Amino acid sequence: MNITRIEVIPVRLPLKAVLTLPRGASRTLDEGKRVALVKVTDADGHVGWGEAGPSRRWSAETLESCVTSIREYLAPALIGHDVFDIAGAHAKMNTELASGLDPGQPIAKGAIDVALHDLVCKRLGIPLQAWLGAKRLDGVRLARLVSASSPEEAARITREGLAEGFQGFKVKVGHHKAIDVELVRAVREAAPQATVWPDANQGYTLEEALRMARALEALGITLFEQPVPMSDFYGMRKLLSATTVTIALDEAAMGIPLAIELLRRDAVESLAIKVSKVGGIYYARQMCDLALNAGLKLIGSGLMDAPIGFAASVHLFAAYGIADPVDLNGPQFIAEDYLAKPFPIERQVARVPAAPGLGIDIDEAKLRRYAL
Ligand SMILES: [Mg+2]
Q1: Cα(175) to centroid of ligand 1, in Å?
Q2: What residues are neighbours of ligand 1 (ion), with CB under 5 Å?
Q3: Cβ neighbours for 3, distance < 8 A, ≥ 6 positions apart
Q4: CATH number for region 130-351
Q5: What is the domain partition of the chain in residue ranges?
Q6: CA of 252 to the centre of ligand 1 (A)
Q7: pLDDT tens, position by position, for the chain (372 residues)?
Q8: Other Cβ atoms within 10 Å of 156 Cβ, number
């Protein structure tokens, strides 16, 4: 069954709060969460939805680049393509926009990939989790993101999170380096039973990362996400041997070729999986399979995803049995969205939708209200 139409709808969703990364605010309140929705229609009129929601201080893609890449290059190459041939769709997309160590504009390609998965699963009448071949979990536990500028603020956010049912807390560090240890300590002390880990988003030098790892050992923290720059393979390997804390790589593992290279260099023991950063479900499941077969720890993550990206991630993480709390923080930051009814989240456990495809209903009238 062939693709007949691919539409791109850029929208701006209002935010409740700003998230700060080592390079500065991920986006301002004014910018909002800007997402390019992708609607793929096949010859029978079946529809699938995907979305590109880039974070410009996290990777090089922007809303504008995603919109033009999809409209001008990716969509035209896929008209007439068989919806069931997702591997072939990626081959065509990678011919139009070259892939390298990473998939080449993965967030734009990932939007089409998720829309194709949604469409195919709807045609088959199965949820995406079933397409992925495993029902290891019925729900995914969400972590609260702690982005604070003082230990007092970090402790307050943590206490509020506990009251809302969160059992995991990811602490953004690398922006206020002098107080980073105190930020993590404040969260640990406010939530002694919870899963707590810092993410430095490449913000440390190797020396700073080694010092932080020692401090984390003393605090009983066992996981540390992306301490050093993604290009510092030496630093990543050095850290693994110097600390008992598990080092999780996120920005460093933007695609399968990079993950393989990290494995060859003994520079990886845990990978953060994001559906968008690797180009969608097709590559994300390969990354999960590679990691599990290599004995790596998988952690789940996202890019402040709106509901389509959120739903795709929940299906994937549940299929791969990621039982630790995952950093899917869209619901914490995005104030309004385009769903007909809210995504099922109970006490911070996101339930895997049972309806076909992603299992969510897009309210197109509502969607148009946020259109840019
Ligand atoms: Mg990260």
Answers
A1: 14
A2: 199, 250
A3: 40, 41, 42, 78, 79, 80, 81, 82, 83
A4: 3.20.20.120
A5: 3-125+364-369, 130-351
A6: 10
A7: 999 999 999 999 999 988 877 777 888 888 999 999 999 999 999 999 999 999 988 899 999 999 999 999 999 999 999 999 999 999 999 999 999 888 899 999 999 999 999 999 999 999 999 999 999 999 999 999 999 999 999 999 999 999 999 999 999 999 889 999 999 999 999 999 999 999 999 999 999 999 999 999 999 999 999 999 999 999 999 999 999 999 999 999 999 999 999 999 999 999 999 999 999 999 999 999 999 999 999 999 999 999 999 999 999 999 999 999 999 999 999 999 999 999 999 999 999 999 999 999 999 999 999 999
A8: 15
Superfamily of structural domain 3-125+364-369: Enolase-like, N-terminal domain (3.30.390.10)
Ligand 1 center–CA 202 separation, angstroms: 9
- What helix, strand, coil percent values describe the chain, rounded to 5? 40, 20, 40
Please tell me the distance from the alpha carbon of residue 21 to that of residue 145, in angstroms, as a whole number.
12
Task: Kindly give the distance from the C-alpha atom of residue 250 to the centroid of ligand 1, in angstroms, as a whole number.
Answer: 5
CA of 278 to the centre of ligand 1 (A): 13
The tokens describing 223, both together, are 């996981």
User: How many whole angstroms from 201 Cα to the centroid of ligand 1?
Assistant: 6
